Protein 1
Amino acid sequence: MRSFRQVVNADCDLLLNRFQLSESVRFEVFSQIWRDMKFEQIFYGTAKHESRSFSRLVLDTAYEFLLPPFTFQIRVGALYLLYALFHCQTADPPEKIRLALKDWDEVLKLEKDSLEAQHFDVVFVLRKLLHEKAFVFTAMPRLLLFERKKVPHRAPVCESFVEKPSAPQTLINNSLLEELSNVHGLYENLKSSVCPQSDSSLSLTHPNMVQTLRGTVLDFYRWQQDKFVQAGSSRDEDGGDGTSSQQESSRRADLLASIKTRAYGEAAEVLKSRRHRAVEVDHVTSRESNPAPSSRYQRKKQKSLKYRTTANVCVSGDVWKDASSVTNITRLTTLTSDEKPPRSFKKFKWKMESS
């Protein structure tokens, strides 16, 4: 299924690109593009045993466009795309959309912005998905698997979809700064002609206002660029354990290894047959002269009771002969006189009648 991720991502890019060219956020426009592209056929031809995994792949790919740094229009198109894919999938029961808890605030912000801009179709689609329980809230945006690649392959993001942090540059451009510099120069000349002497009460503006404004805008632009890059790197780490998280985990592993080494470094080696017992740590201050005991556990075989009795008891003569003979005792008690003799029965005899 990983081989299909690039193809599915390319199809989603094409659909959202057409939706962006429409310069609209209406669901009617999106549904028309969906029908023209026959996008519901993306699930056709999938084997029955692969329908669930393929639906999971398609929904995860479309979910990536729902979050920043994409523009508002692309995020709205991604929401419409998730709504359409959820109802067109062939998996039964339908596969749900994984929504990480850390991304829930971004979804609520999208709903709030749509309400303020009176885009009620966006709010309707989102609440329709919530009512149908199409979302499953998870800790991570993707399912964690054993032996998964720490840095997964991510498809390149279309630059036209990303909301660039260039709002200050569109407002404060070179022409505006030049015009502001001319106005500021005229103001300073007029002020000097009215009051030749310098008066602090007349200093209502900054002397280097144009240069200060330009430096502030540049600093703000650099800050936005750094924040944008940091947000992109944090998304990569959340998707598949980035480099920083790997370094952090390695440092933690080294710390645990050093703690274990200090804790068990002085403990004596325990024999295999006695590992269930508590370990006693012997702090040896001086080296003993006796040789070290063998690490192999040697069990001393104990003699039997018969052998030890025969070896320790000394019996001679006829006593030993009588002791070695076997006594056959059939009854340990004798009959008493009170017992009655056994009862005798008279034998029955048949009488033959003569004819």
Protein 2
Amino acid sequence: MYYYRYENAEVSCCYKYLMFSYNIIFWLAGAAFIAAGFWAWSEKGVLLDLTQVTRLHGFDPVWLVLVVGGFTFTLGFAGCVGALRENICLLKFFSGVIGLIFFLELTAAVLAVVFQSQVRAWINEFFLQNIKAYRDDIDLQNLIDSLQTMNECCGAEKPDDWNLNVYFSCNDTHRSRERCGVPFSCCIADPAETVVNTQCGYDVRNKPPEWDSHIYTKGCIVALEDWLPKNLYTIAIVFVVISLLQMVGIYLARTLISDIEKVKLSY
């Protein structure tokens, strides 16, 4: 009987458990995102009436949380189980999806640079659509308020964009107390005030000359365009770090696949 010796014909425990540790974080994070998403929906009563999802005219941030959570959970599961069970199919799925994500990131970055005007128009339309749905969903409302407060902006291009919302419209046919106003997040904060004045934007668009002293007049699209050049290095560093993490994941998966295939050939 003849025996054939294969060099290093065993699965590296180091790579195996590195791969497991790398993915367990994403698996747990994905589970946390999913739990947070369903908790948010339960608080809003969506789980009791799923038709509420289709009635929202704007963007529901919970959808993003659930999609990211589901995707992260699936990838983490494939990586963890693939490493522990030495399953080539799961490891190939993991490395293939990570590689696809990396390619899509590069493609999106290139397209965003090449088609800047189209991207700007799309973001502007998206923001306006969500201004219309501002009062439809509490999570969307909080997201827009946070965006306007942090960037010291109001509306997509200008404060008058809030005329698109039925509550803030200057239309004479409705009697909303917020008529011809803006959300409180558009107001210039008074450092002396410790409590947020949620009524500070009432009737403010009826007094155009006084806008500058009461609310932010810069649109959020312009604020974003001002923010990007100032934080270009930060964005680049984040992109490089994410890319390196993806490359590490692909390397670990491909190395494990190679080791597993060698072990199978040795029998």
